[in-house]
Amino acid sequence: RPDLPNYKYDEVAEHTSEETGIWVIFKEGVYDITKFIKQHPGGDEKISMAIGGSVEPFWDLYSIHLNKHVFEILESLRIGNVHPEEEMQVFKSGDHYAHEPKRHPALKVNSQKPFNAETPLQILVESFYTPNELFFVRNHLPVPKKSKLEDDFQITGIGLDSSISLTMSELKMKYKPHEITTSVMCAGNRRSAMHETKPVKGLQWSAGAVSTAKWKGIKLSDLLKDLGITEDSKACHIIFQGADTDIESKPYEVSIPLEIALDPNREVLLAFEMNGKEIPLDHGYPIRVIVPGVIGARQVKWLKKIIVSEKESDSLWQQKDYKTFNPSLNIETCDTGKAMAVLEFPVQSAICQPANGSVLKLENKKSLEVKGYALSGAGKKILRVDVSVDGGQSWMEADLYTETKTQMNREWAWTLWKLDVPLSDDMLRKQIDITCKATDSAHNTQPESDLGIWNARGLLENKWPKISVKFE
Ligand code: MTE
Ligand code: MO
């Protein structure tokens, strides 16, 4: 619409209140929805997460919006266009973080440089697949410049004569593409809960450092077998290197055991698609490793190099971070040399709705809808999620929801759960404390307290999650 002014993302992001006007972006348009928001049928809690940015990922969640009537309303509220120069953020020269992509303002930012942000809990469980724009982001380093990222990577090491350069386009022609649905979870998910028990070092994640996507790629096991790398190899580890580097030009690097990389049932992918689209820059464009059943740290983004090796990666991320210790050891006294690098993770769950601390409207309520997610490592599926409103004296069983058809021990994605908790008159008068716990297919379940699992890095917190709500 050339008759209307152009606005930059930052300008739109400043319009989030009634005083300034409430603006949103849809495709190339900027819209003022201040008047409309009051009548929004979904209530203003959900729409408020979309303001100041693009509404598109929310419309993926709430497909009710995708009709002609809504587009007509929106078009009548158009006030401008997204500035055509707004493809990338512009930073001062010399800034290592000069090539960061645009991010959706609904993400809950933990740190800007490097960029770390979680998916808001309220929308995390609104759909089985997390929209790409709202998928949590965990970056240790600056994002590499997009124009430098190409379709190729190197593979080298034991059993290979020389370094081989491969392009994804070639591999796509040679090997059958494979699709899997996995949840990616950071080992630091829910660290803030462990921090409350006793302070730990690290980003203070709530329960939103996990998201789920359908990934398409080629199986790493196909490639390795084709190159003649088998279980009999002298090598024991596969090292992955990213294109992102620190100030000494050292790349992000970690490794996984060869056994996992070669296992066709483990379905380790060199992925090139996320939820049917090109992988976004924040999530590893153009190629990222997906290792089902293990913590996020091993799933290298912006893949540049694969090394077949006798030893694990000697990087900081393999040798120092991402290890757990005896609860009585602190950052100074823990022995990182002795501890094993975290790979698979224990059974986990979270309560996402209602939000912790909410004050809810009474409205003759007979029950309260409680929603969350549960998942476990190593391919274990969720057998059951139990919910308690009396501190664990009695438990109700939640309804489970999944979109995967799982084989035994190959559940790589989360299970969403929901329960209508019956409300008694007594409960309406005081604070309601809600807790839950998940049990996986090996009958592992979550601990009530984290005293026994506390570790100096604050990893793998999985004690019973707790929230409290009140009625007005
Ligand atoms: N890969 C590279 N190259 N650089 C990184 O910083 N972070 C890892 C992993 N892969 C990281 C990486 C960590 S710790 C996690 S939890 C996941 O990516 C997060 O993936 P996401 O940002 O796509 O959610
Ligand atoms: Mo992570």
Biggest β-sheet: count, sense, barrel? 5 strands, mixed
Low-confidence stretches: 87-91
- In the CATH hierarchy, the architecture of the domain at 348-471 is Sandwich
Overall, the morphology is: globular
Mean pLDDT: 92
Estimate the helix proportion, in percent.
10-25%
Please, could you describe this protein's structure?
The structure is a single chain. With 472 residues, the protein is α+β, with helices and mostly antiparallel strands. Among the domains are: 6-82, Roll (Flavocytochrome B2, Chain A, domain 1); 348-471, Immunoglobulin-like. Helices cover 14% and strands 30% of the residues. The chain contains 12 helices and 27 strands. The strands form 6 sheets. It has a 5-stranded mixed sheet. A 5-stranded mixed sheet has the order 10-9-18-13-14. A hairpin with a 3-residue loop joins strand 2 (16-17) and strand 3 (21-26). The radius of gyration is 23 Å and the shape is globular. The two termini are 46 Å apart. Residues 87-91 have low confidence and may be disordered.
Could you list some keywords that capture this structure?
472 residues; 12 helices; Immunoglobulin-like; alpha+beta; binds molybdenum atom; 5-stranded mixed β-sheet
Topology (SSEs and partners):
Blueprint: E1 6-7, H1 9-13, E2 16-17, E3 21-26, E4 29-32, H2 34-37, H3 44-47, H4 56-61, H5 68-76, E5 78-82, E6 108-111, E7 116-118, H6 121-124, E8 137-138, E9 152-157, E10 164-167, H7 168-174, E11 178-185, H8 191-197, E12 210-219, H9 220-226, E13 237-245, E14 251-257, H10 258-262, E15 269-274, E16 277-278, E17 288-290, E18 303-309, H11 316-319, E19 348-353, E20 359-360, E21 367-375, E22 382-388, E23 396-397, E24 399-401, E25 415-422, H12 425-429, E26 432-440, E27 466-471
The chain binds ligand MTE and molybdenum atom.
Ligand MTE binds next to strand 8 and strand 13.
